[in-house]
Specification:
Two copies of one chain form a homodimer.
Chain A (H helix, E strand, L loop, with lengths): L9 E10 H13 L6 E4 L22 E5 L2 E4 L12 E7 L5 H6 L5 H4 L5 E8 L9 E10 L3 H9 L10 E2 L25 E7 L3 H9 L3 E5 L5 E6 L7
Antiparallel strand pairs in A: 1-5, 1-10, 1-11, 2-5, 3-4, 3-10, 6-7, 7-9, 8-9
Amino acid sequence: MTTAGQAPGQAQANLIAIPKDWAYDFLLFTHRNPKPCPVLDVLDAGETVSALKPDADVRTHAPRYRIWEHGELTAEPENATDHWRDDLVTFLVGCSFTFETALVNAGVPLRHVEQQRNVSMFVTDIQCRSAGRLHGPMVVSMRWIPESLVDIAHKVTALMPSVHGSPVGAGDPRMLGIEDVHRPDFGDAVTPEPGDVPVFWACGVTPQAVLMKSKPPFAITHAPGQMFVTDMPDFAYRVG
Amino acid sequence: MTTAGQAPGQAQANLIAIPKDWAYDFLLFTHRNPKPCPVLDVLDAGETVSALKPDADVRTHAPRYRIWEHGELTAEPENATDHWRDDLVTFLVGCSFTFETALVNAGVPLRHVEQQRNVSMFVTDIQCRSAGRLHGPMVVSMRWIPESLVDIAHKVTALMPSVHGSPVGAGDPRMLGIEDVHRPDFGDAVTPEPGDVPVFWACGVTPQAVLMKSKPPFAITHAPGQMFVTDMPDFAYRVG
């Protein structure tokens, strides 16, 4: 069940837990790719509680998890406790669901929420800047937005760089190497209204595309669109 | 010689090079303390050229360097090449000099530049969030600003979070544990004009205060106020 449209006003986060001997590469990767991977919190190895949600366990609080072995998705449990290892370092990465309340408040409709669907996500042909053993393509989320409101959507989200900030593109999906905007790689297809154009934001599912390409021996992530909802107000991630 | 007021329109950076086995702790420290330590670039171990200034060597481009051994300042050379080690990982961290052109353009005078001095910097009693073996207090830079322009200075700098963003305080230095605003810990004392109030921004000299407290065996930094001037336009670090 997607958390899109849930917990309005609260920041949501992508989750990735990776063995400690891969943590430097991942942390460096996030620094070199701040648009898809804005880090909100990094736990110590083995730690299972984040300051962003003190009453929750990072292994159980997201609706669904993904277990990765050597770049292969091997399980999708609702509870990741059985897969936990004490050498795992958990990263919480900003999620674009966090700016959706601000978009609604600015008058920008959210088609996926209206249609009770997950947001559409696509693997692009933009290669991230590599870091150590980690490399892979950028993933984007896509929202159908009335053409007259694209500029407002840009302005609203640009002020929230920790949750992906301004769009990386709008209009032509092919400029990102996306062939069919109605067939997402993750999440659901969403139906546009007349006059809508597709707008693309860097997405925190990018680390999962990186896992597939870089094949570290083990990792746990959330399932796309089924986020770790924090206690932090979304306003905390707005600048200016 | 300070780089304050030099190279208007170009981003300036703090520099710290630390042995590879301390790099994860430092990278984690920067993530946990984004206000004083917004990372602009991280080089690979042994690498000496940053993408932010491709034609320069990070060991010679700043006007002056500091050599640190076990938390003690042992030398202040103009050229750090003789102290270089191939296991050093160089970090470039945002510098508040980068938003000074924007302040001037917004009508905010810069007393230290008018007086051809380095900016004043102070060690505060605010403890940074620790990361692994690294801990220490936050350092701030201080600018005298006409009271009527403090709000404008806040607005202008809030939009540049990668170069320290909005002030961490204004008015009363004691709230930061600063006893005498005319006796800085780094840089020069600056003379206020009538009606000026002190305004404080988180400062990229914080890693040097952390070196003093945490005592890693070796590090190279720039000398405070004698920055690594990049080729990046300051506008690149403005959001919105």
